[in-house]
Write a structure and sequence with these properties.
Blueprint lengths: L4 H6 L1 H16 L7 H13 L3 H14 L4 H13 L3 H8 L8 H13 L3 H14 L4 H48 L4 H4 L2
Helix pairs in contact: 3-4, 4-5, 5-6, 5-7, 6-7, 7-8, 8-9
Length: about 190
């Protein structure tokens, strides 16, 4: 997969490739594409919000290149995004080269989705070490961990705030109820 996809999609070479693919689909004429080309086209459709077309392209890629790592990673990630975690794992398990960087990121993402943070963090640390702690890997590790830690912290804070508000509200209701009847207020007066 191309790393700078936004500029790549504007490249005349990619536009010709996309046109060739769309012509094949329109005319129902079989045409050969390599796996990287098809994965790039699927990425293009995905970035345009055309998930159905992206799936068609990646399925075509997998018919032509059933063991292609990038196509399998794309398919697995698409399933994961749709919430089909077990299917995403099934596709990921078809990947032969488990040492591939994108496969490792996919593994970590799936583990995070299952809230298996320590295992995901271990994979991110391995990636950082294997890439000599390159900035890109460290940034992804830190940002994913930071985002997840922030989400966990926010959830804890919201829980305790909710708990405190709930307890406070319950206490106020009990006090009003008790005081209301102790002072002879009628039930109708309590609603005001």
């Amino acid at each position: 997969m191309n790393n700078d996809l936004s500029s790549y999609f504007e490249d005349p070479e990619f536009k010709d490739l996309l046109s060739k693919y769309e012509g094949m689909v329109e005319s129902h004429t079989p045409t050969y594409f390599d796996a990287e080309e098809l994965t790039d086209i699927a990425e293009y459709y995905a970035t345009k919000g055309e998930e159905g077309k992206a799936e068609e392209v990646i399925d075509f890629a997998l018919r032509l290149h059933p063991n292609n790592t990038d196509a399998l990673v794309f398919k697995s990630r698409s399933l994961y995004i749709k919430g089909k975690l077990s299917e995403a794992y099934q596709v990921m398990n078809l990947i032969e080269d488990t040492s591939d960087r994108e496969v490792k990121f996919l593994q970590a993402d799936l583990l995070m989705e299952e809230h298996r943070m320590e295992e995901a963090e271990t994979i991110y640390q391995e990636l950082a070490k294997s890439e000599n702690e390159s900035f890109e890997v460290l940034y992804m590790v830190l940002s994913k961990n930071s985002i997840m830690n922030k989400k966990i912290k926010i959830a804890k804070v919201l829980f305790w705030i909710g708990f405190a508000i709930g307890a406070l509200l319950a206490a106020v209701c009990i006090i009003v109820f008790v005081l209301g009847f102790a002072t002879g207020l009628t039930e109708e007066m309590l609603y005001y």
